[in-house]
Amino acid sequence: MYLANLDFVSAVSSGRTNLLKAFLLLGLLLASPAFAQAPPGSGRAPVPNVRAPVPQAAPAAAAPASTVAQPRSPTPSENERQLQGAAGVGRVVDGDTLRLEGRTYRLWGIDAPELIQVCQRDGQGYACGREAAAYLRMLLVPEPVLGENAPPATAPQLVCTPRTSDQYGRTAALCRLGDKDLGAEMVRAGWALVFTRHSSDYAPEEDEAREARRGLWSGTFDMPWDWRAKRLGE
Fold first, then answer.
1. What is the rounded distance in angstroms from the CA atom of residue 113 to the CA atom of residue 96?
2. 47-48 and 35-36: which strand pairing?
3. Tens digits of residue pLDDT in 182-228
4. The pTM is what?
5. Fold for domain 81-143+155-231?
6. Measured between alpha carbons, how far is 59 from 209 in angstroms, rounded to an integer?
């Protein structure tokens, strides 16, 4: 009887030991970070605590070549624009100066009285500078086409071709209206003189005007360059 009791006690003690080992093993498993416990009362089994890798952002694509800012071409200066010449409808400034397409041109090879210059004719003073400007303005008016069946006249285009610059920085240009040389016409009419500082191209026209006593040659006057020297200190 005593031996039987001993065997029973030994078996119970062994069973407790095995049960204690089982609980210890279960506790170690539950404490492991590889398993995340489900919230209490959720009824869901624990799931492995494994995080998915975060996807890397794709590198930004390079901007297309067409969107890259290109250097701006330099804007031509006023002097460069004048040296290129111009064509269009002109406006008279004085007897030897025109405005064309926003640019100022002095007529090549001539010198006309200044706008405020006064000359003498028949013993009286008159505004020869204004009369010279008025004649140049008249030259810019297209001539009418005669005849009943004549087609409507197309105004010829004023074209100024630069030659050089004067002491005021103005571009001296050969200006033509159709086949009409405005410088030559001004000298021929006696309202401008040959400006030898540029050339003597219009000397024949000046001789013709002097002999016929046209324009300035119908009276007395100061040469425009002499008048400027006395009045403007040139």
1. 8
2. antiparallel
3. 999 999 999 999 999 888 999 999 999 999 999 999 999 999 999 99
4. 0.61
5. OB fold (Dihydrolipoamide Acetyltransferase, E2P) (2.40.50)
6. 84
